[in-house]
Amino acid sequence: MAMTGDKLFFAVVERGKANRLLRAAQECGAKGGTIFLGEGTIKSKLLDKLGINEIHKEILMTAVPDGISDKLYETLSREFKLHRKYTGVAFSTPFRRWTAESQPLPVLDRAEDAPYRCLMTVLDKGRGHECMKVARVAGASGGTILHGHGAGVPKDFYFPLMIEPQKDVVMIVLPSAKTPGIRSAIYTGMELNKPGNGIVFTLPVLNTVGLYEDRKVGTA
After folding, report:
1. Which CATH architecture has domain 7-97+111-218?
2. Is the N or the C terminus of the chain less surrounded, counting Cβ atoms within 10 Å?
């Protein structure tokens, strides 16, 4: 897929592993990074009844310069075994840094052909689980719920998502074909047409590792 420029890299792993993953990413060439705390969701009727349908997660977000993505994904598979089911998920999406001297953002080549999409929904705190229920009914197998906001973002860091305190951010990675229906269900079910209720948007996903359509544990 002929997309140029830097990439915004996400990895969803078990609590306690993100710092080691960030160090590995930096050794590959990544610059800085932010770690969020979140909850993965498990699609299981039994666990839902028992009230243990959440697993603690860390979400690493870092900008990756163009040209090192392959090296980074090789490291993830070799050292972190993310190619195995249930060990975590990593993916990247097109990204541009912005400064006052930046030129207008170029159009990304063939972004519409990306095989997966990252569906982001920003809601008031406490509504993330309700959003996941709506998404599951529409066909999503799982997702990750982020709380609060990250810190330590570089001054020239640009990403079209400011995560405010007292907010839930629901992140779901889906095959592109499923995205419109699930996005529409979330928009309707969470009443995002009403001012202040939240927003939903999608990002094209480039590389992935650890992503299985038939996985039972939804980590991203």
Report:
1. 2-Layer Sandwich (3.30)
2. N
